[in-house]
Design brief:
The structure is a homodimer. Chain A is α+β, with helices and mostly antiparallel strands. The first copy, chain A, is 51% helix and 14% strand. The first copy, chain A, has helices at residues 7-14, 17-26, 33-37, 44-56, 75-88; strands at residues 31-32, 60-65, 68-73. Chain B binds a DNA duplex through helix 3 and helix 4.
DNA sequence: TAGATAATTAGATATTTTTCTAAATATTGC
DNA sequence: GCAATATTTAGAAAAATATCTAATTATCTA
């Protein structure tokens, strides 16, 4: 029950507004790296770094589908926590603004 | 209802393990800066910096009492969120270990 | 008022993080 | 196999953060 989260990694991951916006986007369902990237003004390389941080924190899962890599929220660790956090705070980041 | 939180400031504040340990310590009730500092291996100056970040995020309140400054959790913004976060994750920081 | 104690602010340095460009890897379809 | 597309990895530069020492501010007490 969320007891095997890497606390430091998760908080660090959540501290960046771009990463929070990525997570927010994924709440609508799985997306490819490219689809996620459309909403941001950064290079694919930078985005990839953010993905790595989120993955390391176990907040997202990846699955290769052909040439694409599909990202989705890791519901085990994340879904309940993410909802609590995301809904508790008003969105303000440049992308995914509700 | 938690809708006027400064999202970015709060997450940034929570991203540092020393600051999370400070908050954790304050869950037992208000403490002076010095009392909080006893648990850490950093200088008062560094600690003061962390207090400033927590204050800026509205996570703690301060009140001067004589030569002391007493810190407490800001229950309005924090108490419910803090409980959710702190209880959801296992403690791992050097200080305030439950 | 002077000295002691508590805490913060100023200024500098070291570390970490974010971002970029360029190069590498994986996969598709001809 | 080769070119095109999707994504990641490597390496470097810029920006942000954490920490320190030294100096400052505020308060207490003798």
């Amino acid at each position: 029950m969320a007891s095997h989260m890497k606390q430091q990694e998760v908080f660090k991951a959540m501290a960046d507004p771009t990463r929070r916006a990525i997570l927010k986007r994924l709440q609508g369902g799985p997306l490819t790296a490219g689809e996620i990237g459309e909403a941001f003004d950064i290079t694919p390389a930078s985005l990839s770094h953010h993905f790595a941080v989120l993955k390391h924190a176990d907040l997202v899962r990846t699955e290769r589908r052909g040439q694409y890599i599909v990202y989705s929220l890791n519901s085990t660790v994340f879904e309940d926590l993410a909802r609590v956090l995301m809904d508790l705070f008003p969105t303000k980041g440049k992308a995914g603004g509700k």
